[in-house]
Amino acid sequence: MKIPIILNVNGTSHAVIVESYWTLAYVLRDMLRLTGTKVACGTGDCGCCTVIADGRAILSCITLAAAAEGMKIETIEGLSADGTRELHPVQSAFAETGAAQCGFCIPGMMMNMKAFLDETPTCTEEELRRALGGNICRCTGYAKQVEALVKARDSIRRKQRARH
To answer: Of 2, 37, 87, 155, which has the fewest CB atoms closer than 10 Å, so is most exposed?
Structure first.
């Protein structure tokens, strides 16, 4: 059954007509051409498809597109700081530390960790490691990713202190 919905993605409203069983990942990638969101497992186990919906990290491969109507959705394409071309601290830290290898899992990892750091900017390294547990990377031992996330966390903390 076709359903007309409006998705708010990266600050832009998109009117789309979807089948009731289509996933958010499918609509983002194949209808809206936002291919930064990756699909690996299709079962919500690997984290590659992570996007942010209303401030929370969600797995878009197991979220129905129709269920996302009315949510504010952020994808890796919209991660730059405040809609500018300036990289988000998570992006900058991944680039500076060389934390991305093949890059397939990285968009989902960045979105998951952006949501986590937004909610928990004073987290410990151990908490970062646990939060990263929902993202599977086959290329690394996670050392560079953890290094990048500590760097991003520290950058976010500095920016918050500068504002106050």
So the answer is: 2
The CATH fold of domain 81-163 = DNA polymerase; domain 1 (1.10.150)
Burial 11-48 (b: 16+ CB within 10 A, else e): eeebebebeeebbbbbbbbeebebebbbbbeeeeebbb
Q: What is the mean pLDDT of residues 71-90?
A: 86
Can you read off the two tokens belonging to residue 56? 């929370």
As a whole number, the mean pLDDT across the chain is 93
pLDDT at position 83 is: 61
- Backbone phi, psi, residue 163, to 5°: -75, -25
- Determine the topology of domain 2-78 in CATH: Ubiquitin-like (UB roll) (3.10.20)
pTM of the model: 0.92
Q: Which residue has the tokens 């990285």?
A: 106
**Contact between residue 84 and residue 73 where contact means Cβ atoms under 8 Å apart:** no
Q: What are phi and psi of 17, to 5 degrees?
A: -110, 120
